[in-house]
Amino acid sequence: MGTEPQILIKGKPDQLFSRGLLAKKLELIGFSLSDGYEFSIQVHNELIKLKKKVITKKQLDEIVSDLLNQNYTNRLAGQYKKIENWRESEIPLWILISGAIGVGKSTISRQIAGDLGIQHVVGTGIIRDVLQKVLSADIMPELHSSSYNAFQTLRPIYSSRFEEVILGFENHSKFVNIGVEAVLSRAETESVSIVVEGEHLLPAFYEETVLKKPNVLYITVATPDESLHKENISAQYTKEKEELLNHFKQIRKIHDHLVNEAKIRKLNLVLSERGKKPIGRVRQLVVEKITSLIAYE
């Protein structure tokens, strides 16, 4: 049995054609991995018919787009082509994924970064940890508390006038967002794509600046089912599980506050529900954002 011919794709960088890689790319426009792999076999067969060992990335994209148009829809063909044009462009994409502890935003962030080949994924928890090393608890006690119990650092005058859990959370988050702004400023200077995820990404802090940029996609992930939310926390965390479950009431208040903020500002809200993975909806929003940024002939 002969060895399957290898086809070199000339691009940035050069690489051998991979059915698995193409199938993974097709997930972004709604294919299952198995359906994407089946389609990639058709693409490979077309490449073999050309009897060329080397083709350009542009030629490959045309073949994939034509087959998508023939076998599926013109819309899918157009989406694929725009995404690939974006990959070749120098237009940075910033994806901000907000949500309370335990809704699955970290998993989603890793998945979507993998889909797009984005190398920079930053969690606001890491930014908080760095700031804690720089700023002592004497200077900023809110920062050294957890988001759900930062209200315990509030002065007594606040507790009778405001919802203290939310006020503590916002005070805690505003310091973290100084670090987030620094990260985004660096991303802008270097013109790189980035995914930032975390509960601290309150839209009020970015409404007049970051959220107005055309290359920014802001998403809030929510889990409407409280019992599912608890189950997620139990599954995702080990050392902190008991601590988080003991403060679930406060975490849930933060969850509802983030959801309400997204609704008030008409921002993207993605629901995590039983039997329904939110990554599909996130991918749709990403494709919509990219197609709004990229034009093709």
Describe what this molecule looks like in 3D:
This protein has a five-stranded parallel beta sheet with strand order 5-6-4-7-8, sandwiched between helices. It is built from twelve helices and eight strands. A hairpin with a 4-residue loop joins strand 1 (8-10) and strand 2 (15-16). It is α/β, with parallel strands linked by helices and 297 residues long. The chain folds into two domains: 8-88; 94-293, Rossmann fold, CATH 3.40.50. Helix 3 packs antiparallel against helix 4 (74-88) and helix 4 crosses helix 12. The chain has helices spanning 19-27, 33-50, 57-71, 74-88, 105-116, 124-134, 156-159, 164-190, 226-236, 241-246, 248-264, 279-293, and strands spanning 8-10, 15-16, 54-56, 94-98, 121-123, 194-198, 216-222, 268-271.
Indicate the overall shape: elongated
Give the uncertain stretches in residue-range form.
157-161
What is the overall pLDDT average? 90
Derived from helix and strand composition plus strand pairing, the structural class reads alpha/beta
* % residues in beta strands: 5-15%
Radius of gyration over C-alpha positions, nearest whole angstrom: 22 Å
Instruction: Determine the CATH superfamily of the largest domain.
Output: P-loop containing nucleotide triphosphate hydrolases
CATH architecture of the largest domain: 3-Layer(aba) Sandwich
Summarize, please.
By secondary structure, this protein is of the alpha/beta class.
Helices and strands, with pairings:
Blueprint: E1 8-10, E2 15-16, H1 19-27, H2 33-50, E3 54-56, H3 57-71, H4 74-88, E4 94-98, H5 105-116, E5 121-123, H6 124-134, H7 156-159, H8 164-190, E6 194-198, E7 216-222, H9 226-236, H10 241-246, H11 248-264, E8 268-271, H12 279-293
Parallel strand pairs: 1-3, 4-6, 4-7, 5-6, 7-8
Antiparallel strand pairs: 1-2
